Amino acid sequence: MTTIAGSRWAITGAAGNIGLSLREALTEHHVTLVSTDLRSAAPIGPHDTFVQAELGDLEALVEVFAGVDGVIHLGGISDEADFHDLADANIVGTYHVLEAARRAGVPRVIFASSNRLTGMYTAGDHVSPEMPPRPDGFYGVSKVAGEALCRLYADKFGISTISVRIGSYENQPSSAREQRTWLSPADALRAFLAAMSTTEHTAVFYAVSANSDSWWDLEAGAAIGFTPQDNAASSGSRQPIDPGTPQGGSYATPEYSTDRMRR
Ligand code: NAI
Q1: Does domain 8-258 bear CATH number 1.10.10.10?
Q2: Residue 60 DSSP one-character state
Q3: 240 alpha carbon to ligand 1 midpoint, in Å?
């Protein structure tokens, strides 16, 4: 376990939903941040610098990453979209992040992967990171490619890469699916702190709260020090889901993808 306080990290997708709250929390843990996003955003305090950049701009990322201890890569399209756009932002973008990290000599990249990489497993399945990907859409496919790039950079170029398969990041669970997939903001912080401080060279784990009805194996997270504390079951009555339906729910329907394709 390495010490987080006093370290310097870059965050992509820093103006997004998770980025904004993670930046607040990490500065409270005395991490100095270099935050970057396509959209402009204000620094959140004296220990945060904001640089507006596009994931398509490799040279800009090399500059942003100079001198950091690690990169948390949250940037990209965060839901189903046309494949061409996902390929640019999420696949080429993740390649640029890893390659910029290699060129800048950054020792670790943490990748915001997604549960949607296994969303075609059914509600009756217990899924672990060792099982083959079964994405529920093109967004999930882009995360499969992102995890593969992370593994390549760990195996071939010696960069430590940790893929965090984020569940449903919400303040409260609000559906039967989210009772299984909920990741509370406090547990998300625990997941990222574990990914930042583990001594493992590479890992893939599900970042999900300790939900009574969870579909996913927590062992890989436990192995790197992630112990979730929240449980969706304490936020309301437990609703059943037919064990034969895909874990991705409505995300797994053909229409969810075709409605977002370019015509
Ligand atoms: P978000 O959509 O709120 O934030 C993503 C950020 O990336 C945005 O601020 C956007 O401007 C930036 N971005 C998009 N394309 C870019 C580009 N080409 N260049 C530079 N910046 C670009 O997403 P959120 O919810 O904060 O998620 C963060 C990460 O976690 C994403 O990678 C998402 O796929 C992943 N994730 C999130 C989950 C959730 O429940 N919120 C669940 C599973 C995975």
Answers
A1: no
A2: H
A3: 30
